[in-house]
């Protein structure tokens, strides 16, 4: 049963670049990072020497259903071994490292990753420790640096947040930004004659309610009201709803209750006629 955006009836998106977490300190962050990966269609997780060991129960608790990513995660003793079979690696860092190494934003890295994967290369996105990030030596093992336009006075992101932002850019680039759903098809546009009929209905009832208190201003006020509805680009369903709104306001509570009682009385009479075996009156007949 779908809920909170999770729908087990839909296929699980897999693939994308490898996500490498280097010496993560907390199982909670590993689980939250896996959740973010699942959100944006990444499935390949490598974990380098996690501080609390592996597997980790807290990681499964915090992954919120992305257990398959954790179950298939690969464990490595160091970053060098985690990158041994990767064609291109990107180090994420919030600090300038003084290296002659290209620096890109997450959006540029995402587009480049799509192209590289399409050409048969494998790509790794490397994330460092919660407290210190990647060591400079580890950054030197990568081909490029990924950084984000964060507040320079408060640049440290939570590990899972950094994975989420990067994974989001990947997903957007891989899907050409296509959203998972759109506004449903609307009712057909209202025809001009239907719109004019609604204007007649509304203006008649406004006159009955003495809305137009100044005869001199009535024409301009009427035009303003019509222009409000013109700007809305109303559909046939919109007009049907608006007719009902006006009618309901005119009837008031007493009128609605009276109409309800009349409908109930007609239904009761039909039920009684069926019970007595008497033929029912044809619809619309008059006594």
UniProtKB/TrEMBL annotation:
All copies of domain tRNA/rRNA methyltransferase SpoU type, residue ranges: 18-168
Keyword tRNA processing annotated: yes
InterPro entries reported for this sequence: Alpha/beta_knot_MTases (IPR029028), RNA_MeTrfase_TrmJ/LasT (IPR004384), SpoU_MeTrfase (IPR001537), tRNA_m1G_MTases_N (IPR029026)
Compartment(s) of residence: Cytoplasm
Catalytic activity: cytidine(32) in tRNA + S-adenosyl-L-methionine = 2'-O-methylcytidine(32) in tRNA + S-adenosyl-L-homocysteine + H(+); uridine(32) in tRNA + S-adenosyl-L-methionine = 2'-O-methyluridine(32) in tRNA + S-adenosyl-L-homocysteine + H(+)
Main location: cytoplasm
E.C. code: 2.1.1.200
One function term, GO molecular function aspect: tRNA (cytidine(32)/uridine(32)-2'-O)-methyltransferase activity
Keyword Methyltransferase attributed: yes
Compositionally biased spans, kind Basic and acidic residues: 253-264
Gene3D superfamilies in the record: 1.10.8.590, 3.40.1280.10
Family note: Belongs to the class IV-like SAM-binding methyltransferase superfamily. RNA methyltransferase TrmH family.
Quaternary context: Homodimer.
Protein name: tRNA (cytidine/uridine-2'-O-)-methyltransferase TrmJ
Gene source species: Azorhizobium oxalatiphilum
This protein's encoding gene: trmJ
């Amino acid at each position: 049963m779908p809920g909170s955006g999770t729908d087990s009836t839909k296929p699980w998106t897999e693939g994308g670049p490898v996500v490498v977490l280097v010496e993560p300190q907390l199982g909670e962050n590993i689980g939250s990072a896996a959740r973010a990966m699942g959100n944006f269609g990444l499935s390949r997780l490598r974990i380098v020497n996690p501080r609390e060991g592996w597997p980790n129960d807290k990681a499964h608790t915090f992954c919120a259903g992305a257990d398959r990513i954790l179950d298939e995660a690969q464990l490595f003793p160091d970053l060098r071994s985690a990158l041994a079979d990767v064609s291109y690696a990107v180090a994420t860092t919030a600090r300038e490292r003084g290296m002659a190494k290209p620096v890109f934003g997450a959006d540029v890295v995402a587009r480049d990753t799509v192209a590289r994967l399409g050409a048969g290369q494998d790509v790794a996105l490397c994330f460092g420790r919660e407290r210190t990030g990647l060591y400079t030596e580890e950054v030197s093992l990568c081909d490029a640096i990924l950084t984000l336009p964060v507040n320079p006075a408060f640049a440290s992101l939570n590990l899972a947040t950094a994975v989420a932002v990067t994974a989001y850019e990947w997903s957007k680039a891989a899907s050409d930004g296509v959203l998972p759903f759109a506004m449903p098809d609307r009712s057909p546009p209202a025809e001009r004659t239907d719109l004019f009929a609604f204007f007649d209905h509304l203006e008649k009832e406004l006159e009955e309610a003495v809305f137009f208190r100044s005869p001199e201003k009535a024409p301009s006020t009427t035009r303003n009201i019509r222009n409000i509805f013109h700007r809305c680009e109303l559909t046939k369903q919109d007009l049907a709803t608006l007719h009902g709104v006006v009618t309901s306001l005119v009837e008031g509570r007493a009128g609605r209750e009276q109409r309800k009682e009349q409908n109930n009385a007609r239904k009761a009479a039909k039920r009684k006629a069926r019970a007595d075996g008497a033929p029912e009156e044809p619809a619309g007949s008059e006594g």
